[in-house]
Amino acid sequence: MSSSLWKDFESGDSPLFRLLRFVVLLGGVVFLILTGVLDLTWPQQAVLGLLTVLVALWIDRSSSSYLVTLTLMIASCYSTFRYGYWRISYTIKFFLDPGNHWTLLDAFFIWTLVGAESYAFAILFLGFMQTIWPLRRTPVPLPDDVDEWPAVDILIPTYNEPMSVVRYTALAAINIDWPADKLGVYILDDGKREEFRQFAEEAGLGYMTRDDNFHAKAGNINRALKRLDAPYVAIFDCDHVPTRSFLQVTIGWFLRDQNLGMLQTPHHFYSPDPFERNLEKFRIIPNEGELFYGIVQDGNDFWNATFFCGSCAILRRTAIDEIGGIAVETVTEDAHTALRMQKNGWNTAYINIPQAAGLATERLSGHVKQRIRWARGMIQILRTDNPLMASGLKIYQRICYFNAMTHFLYAFPRLIFLTAPLIYLVLGHTNVPGYWAAILAYAFPHLVLSSMTNSRIQGQHRHSFWNEVYETILAPYILLPTMLAILNPKLGSFNVTAKGGVVNRRFFDSNIAQPFIFMIAMNFFAILMGAIRFFYIPIWPLNVLYDGQHPGTIIMNLIWVFFNLVILGVCLSVAWENQQRRQTVRITMNVQADLQLASGLRVQGVTADMSTGGAMVRMDHEFTATMGEAVKVTLPVLDATATLPATVVGIRKDSLHIQFDPLTLQEEEALTMILYSRADSWLGWGETREPDRPMKSLALIFHLAWKGLTQTFIRGLMKSKNTAPQRQKQKGKLATSIVPLLLFALLLGAPSLLGQARPFRALGLRPQISAASLPSASDTTGSVADSAALPVPQDGGVPVRAVAPGTFDNLFTLADIGVPDTIVLRGTDAYHSVYFSVPQTQVVKTATMKLRYHFSPGLIPQLSHLKVSLNGTLFATLPVVVQSSASTPQQP
């Protein structure tokens, strides 16, 4: 062989090398198929399976190269194929063997489980194929001549979201780094709110509305497109705040690829979702959506099958017009629109660089509702525009879309896996035919290799065993909507996901947890029945059902039950909603902050976290400040000149807590640029997270399961046992069990820069007594701190009097409902919470509340007052008076 041919062979360019590579690949595939269907005894299979697992473990730890990842994919597919082939072939043999006695009920249970496993096998194979080579596309530079940059319209659709959510998205959009004459920003208000129109006019934004709300978000966008003509359109959900670099990162690809119809960027969330918040694992475990945006979309991009996700994306106007606008036939208009673009020959792309950030759902119930809409919509697309049958798609595009749609059919298989061991332990019917050791020998390598491979592929974006948790929580709720969508794709309507709310107290969402509690009870019952079977306890009529002849099968099913209990226990932990009082989300960020104190002294520090409400600043040097002191904050990262007025609300040894004063529109704009719009705002969020370690992840799952089970059943039972009879009658929703009469809050105002009280922070239905902007606990004279005190009468209270049916008369004092002593409020933003409730059968129509309070004589009357609120709603402002006490009746 000549030296040139040898060099070609070494480089892989030689035809001989390509032929050899093809022969080796073909031979490997044939070998795997032949050995995959090889019939072995269970000891032989146990040896083969153990060797396969050990070799895979060695390969996994030998290198981090992607070639090893591909090898593990092949090994996982091999072990899964081998288990699946044996599982189906043995099941057929079981029914064909006349020596086996089975009933129609046995056949139903057995084939149902086989169907669920077959679905899982198919999803595993399709998932490997979909993510076999994540593309990791990088941005394309724009032309040096700014005049060559195209015009872009930015659309922000909204319906019932509050202004506090929408305004920062709009302010960030108008500050995107793009020529001003080529950038149009429009709020599309389907709520037809005058407040939004005035804000748009003041901020210099476009504002559009329409006479109807046909087709929800899709119809709203389509209506706006008829009035606009820019060649490119960017769409943001009203809570997704773009960075200033968004267009510069994305538009370049459209100029390079004239056939590119849509480019998507990740949906990044700077607030915890219900799993992260309720489990207190924010930025420790990846959130539920991170797998899709971290791996799946990059894999789709490799196959030119990127999905449009409804927000944080750019679309070419000609591509939208060609398909007739945003799709309106389903409730997932975004993915449907991308599919139609692909059918018409347009390309799609994905850049995995977070260039916008939004709010995750606060409540688990809201999260479930959102996923129900997604699941229903994807099945609707499957029924109306089945990608396997649609014209214009390539084979791999069909696979990507089909896998995404059928993924939402997991509810039925997941529920089968959660209940399958009960078929044998409780009912005494066969669920998996075969000798238990043979089942273990074939299933063990499949389970280990699939888990190991997925951990290697997805570990940075989905930790081991969390997929089971996410699917289990959603399965009971998406089952019926998906089944109905298969039967009738026109069923269902678009619903807006609530964002920007608060959770006023920690509570157990028993409504959302009902399916999990039921399944836990059934699994505990299965453990009891398993013990009876294992020890052969002759309890009539159970001794007829349980003969104690299959201890290995009983143990395997009990292990299965135990694992299901662990997953269900984590679901209970998630159903415990943690308290979230703040309406503004604190974002961890380290930027320089210069503070000018009231004395004129300037001090420097670095922010530890910041929100639209305030910030915590770690000071570089010693400082002297007082509570309630007015300061000016300059953040050089912006332009070193913009200042924000604030008030000191907390002082620690090396840090200062400040609360922003009411800001002008220009100041809000500057805060938006600092907080959300920096080009690097969301980069590197996952870098500090620990990589996935399956055993460590499993240990965490066990811990969370134990926590969920104990706090739900043990603590819950103890709490209900010690609850007074009157309190035991309280059921139903918080909004119906707490009435305006029994909720009240006092907020002691304080001087601001303008001499006005600071605004009350509504806390939903949670009552509070708050003090704001009081002098510090000690001063230079050493006198007692100025404070506000609410005395509690010590008259023993007045009992509830029995009255005629239909009316009631409750009269009580703070002492009657458990306030032990005088309430004293000191310091800025101090508050005290008091909880009340009445039976759900009582409805309050009229009520009077009398408050007695004393101000400290050290307060300045002109700058201090009380703010009184009910249910978090301000209804009275009481000035400081000369009298030592005041009585204020109020009828809510």
Question: How would you portray this structure in words?
Answer:
By secondary structure, this protein is of the alpha+beta class. The protein is built from 25 helices and 27 strands. The protein starts with a helix and ends in a 13-residue tail after the last strand. The C terminus is likely disordered.
Gist?
This protein has 892 residues and is an alpha+beta fold. The chain has 25 helices and 27 strands. 43% of the residues lie in helices and 13% in strands.
Largest sheet, in brief, is: 7 strands, mixed
State the helix count. 25
Percentage of residues in helical conformation: 40-55%
Tell me the number of strands: 27
In terms of DSSP E residues, the strand content is 5-15%
Topology readout:
Elements lengths: L2 H9 L3 H22 L5 H21 L3 H31 L7 H27 L21 E7 L4 H12 L8 E7 L4 H10 L2 E3 L7 H10 L6 E4 L5 E2 L3 H11 L3 E5 L3 E2 L4 H5 L11 H13 L10 E4 H6 L10 H11 L3 E4 L5 E3 L5 H21 L10 H13 L3 H15 L10 H23 L7 H22 L19 E2 L1 H26 L6 H4 L5 H25 E2 L9 E2 L3 E5 L5 E9 L3 E6 L10 E5 L8 E9 L3 E6 L4 H11 L18 H28 L3 H4 L5 H4 L7 E4 L20 E3 L16 E3 L32 E3 L4 E3 L21 E2 L9 E6 L2 E7 L13
Parallel strand pairs: 1-2, 1-4, 2-3, 6-9, 7-10, 20-21
Antiparallel strand pairs: 4-8, 5-10, 6-8, 11-12, 13-15, 14-15, 14-17, 15-16, 16-19, 17-18, 18-19, 20-26, 21-24, 22-23, 22-25, 26-27
